[in-house]
Amino acid sequence: MYKINRTQIKTKEEKVAERISTILSDFSLDLERIGYYIARNTPYVIYSRSIEVLEAAQFQKPIIDEIRMEGYYDDKLFK
After folding, report:
1. Dihedral sign, CA of 12, 15, 17, 20?
2. Which of 4, 14, 42, 67 could join 46 in a cystine, given CB atoms 3.0 to 4.6 angstroms apart?
3. Kind and range of the H or E element at 15?
4. What's the mean per-residue pLDDT of the chain?
């Protein structure tokens, strides 16, 4: 007999996103200061990549919100 493993394997990107969100969930951090140090102390490539990640998140947020809210405003609920 064998066991079927049905767990979802997380990609590297999902793991990194979870780590970033865990770090940023500390409300005692000064986010402006973190931005200052990223801009000042990291190479330009790292700064550019962080801006790319934030722009992607900013683009995806309205799409995800619309998908989440679709069930609440669906016409089928009122039939």
Report:
1. negative
2. 42
3. helix 12-24
4. 85
